[in-house]
């Protein structure tokens, strides 16, 4: 591969990841499908994940299960392909995007997605701090600091330590929530959630996808770049295990914790199972451990990718500066934690959701360009070529890709401007992204055919 092997050597010597946005050398690509599944399942299993039960309250248990399964089926193809892309070229999605959206477009997107990742890190820290303060009143700001320091510390040491953290805390996390579930079912009469309102299948599927799979999928390469390389000699079933692991991990957590939230809401009037034992000392400690782990599991996969995106902005070339990544982790994590303490993030949640609307069309455009343009076969140094002048910031197909991204965002907003009931039944947010991807593909084909005719003439 290229020179960045030195970066991993530094990581190993100092036990701190200093890789930055450089390609992961083969010596560090050892992750297996089981660990890949575990990381994304735990990242998706936040203390706030059961809130999907509140958002979809009234549709009934079995309709909820069907909606989650349909959302998985619809979002599976781009999610699987993105996971595979990280094994084809061990680089993050924002570096991949440079060949699609240009260095300029990818840099702007990286800045926006850094804000999204850091913002949700802060919001989750805020939620976790409030839950812990409810369980143990009087500590206030202390819980925010504890959560912030813990999470920053985990990401500071990089993926190697994060793997161990997920591996060794998975069982403890499951035990904590199993105990809380036991308390729920033994201390409250069971009430089956039944459908009491009409199911808006399209709207609900969009909600689940934006809440889970397609909100995470563009970050799959950030983790799969540490997986074993995809070789031509690799067996199909082995390749499938790697490709499907992140998507099934994310949606398994959404399904199980969503069901828990739905049932808890029906039985107790509160979706937040972590608060059920707040009046009992022992149960309170168990809740606190579960909450801390759940928040840390999720926020590690908010902050770590956000750090890599910010590094993609400040470090275009592949060779990272020593300690650049650890410094960015501390600065970005501290800033996001401070925003949580200050309560500012409550006012920008809508803004973060708006930025998140970029994800659907961005995902489809990136995937189509990657495989149609065979970016996986290009020399990795092309992804790190700095722009020599302003025109090189938006080399083809960047103008077309950026135009279609804007088109996709506007098309996705159409349902808010229409009173048609068709949007209740068609998942328009993902449908508009698919339409955008198809038009983008047609544009690429026409441009290639035109170029071929010119050569023939």
Automatic annotation (TrEMBL):
Gene3D superfamilies documented for this protein: Hydantoin permease
Membrane topology value: Multi-pass membrane protein
Database matches in InterPro entries: CodB (IPR030191), Pur-cyt_permease (IPR001248)
Keywords: Membrane, Transmembrane, Transmembrane helix
Domain of life: Bacteria
Compartments reported by the entry: Membrane
Keyword Transmembrane helix among record annotations: yes
Positions of transmembrane segments: 35-55, 61-81, 101-121, 141-158, 165-185, 205-228, 240-266, 286-307, 327-348, 354-372, 393-414, 426-447
Family: Belongs to the purine-cytosine permease (2.A.39) family.
PANTHER family: CYTOSINE PERMEASE, CYTOSINE TRANSPORTER CODB
Record protein name field: Thiamine permease
Organism phylogeny: Bacteria, Pseudomonadati, Pseudomonadota, Acidithiobacillia, Acidithiobacillales
């Amino acid at each position: 591969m290229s020179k960045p092997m030195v970066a991993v050597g530094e990581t190993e010597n100092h036990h701190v990841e200093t890789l930055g946005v450089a390609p992961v050398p083969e010596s560090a690509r050892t992750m297996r499908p089981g660990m890949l599944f575990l990381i994304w399942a735990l990242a998706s299993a936040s203390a706030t994940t059961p809130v999907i039960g509140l958002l979809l309250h009234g549709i009934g248990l079995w309709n909820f299960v069907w909606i989650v399964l349909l959302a998985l089926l619809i979002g599976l193809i781009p999610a699987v392909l993105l996971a595979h892309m990280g094994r084809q070229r061990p680089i993050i999605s924002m570096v991949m995007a440079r060949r699609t959206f240009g260095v300029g477009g990818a840099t702007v997107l990286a800045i926006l997605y850094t804000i999204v990742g850091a913002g949700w890190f802060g919001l989750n820290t805020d939620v976790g701090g409030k839950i812990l303060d409810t369980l143990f009143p009087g500590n206030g700001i202390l819980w925010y600091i504890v959560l912030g320091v813990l999470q920053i510390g985990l990401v500071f040491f990089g993926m190697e330590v994060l793997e161990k953290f997920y591996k060794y805390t998975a069982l403890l996390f499951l035990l904590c929530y199993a105990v809380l579930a036991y308390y729920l079912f033994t201390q409250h009469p069971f009430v089956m959630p039944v459908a009491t309102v009409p199911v808006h299948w399209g709207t609900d599927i969009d909600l689940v996808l934006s809440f889970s799979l397609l909100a995470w999928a563009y970050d799959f390469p950030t983790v799969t770049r540490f997986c074993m390389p995809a070789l031509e000699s690799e067996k199909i079933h082995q390749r499938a295990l790697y490709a499907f692991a992140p998507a099934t991990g994310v949606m398994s957590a959404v399904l199980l914790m969503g069901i828990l939230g739905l049932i808890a809401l029906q039985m107790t009037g509160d979706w937040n199972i972590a608060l059920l034992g707040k009046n009992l000392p022992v149960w309170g400690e168990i809740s606190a451990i579960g909450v801390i782990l759940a928040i840390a599991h999720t926020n590690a996969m908010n902050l770590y990718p956000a750090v890599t995106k910010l590094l993609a902005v400040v470090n275009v070339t592949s060779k990272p500066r020593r300690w650049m990544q650890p410094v960015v982790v501390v600065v970005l994590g501290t800033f996001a934690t401070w925003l949580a303490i200050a309560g500012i993030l409550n006012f920008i949640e809508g803004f973060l959701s708006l930025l998140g609307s970029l994800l659907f069309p961005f995902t489809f455009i990136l995937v189509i360009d990657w495989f149609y343009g065979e970016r996986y076969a290009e020399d990795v140094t092309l992804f790190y070529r700095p722009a020599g002048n302003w025109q090189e910031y938006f080399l083809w197909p960047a103008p077309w890709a950026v135009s279609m991204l804007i088109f996709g965002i506007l098309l996705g907003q159409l349902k808010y401007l229409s009173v048609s009931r068709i949007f209740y039944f068609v998942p328009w947010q993902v449908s508009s992204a698919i339409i955008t991807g198809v038009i983008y593909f047609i544009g690429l084909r026409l441009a290639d055919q035109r170029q071929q005719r010119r050569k023939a003439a």
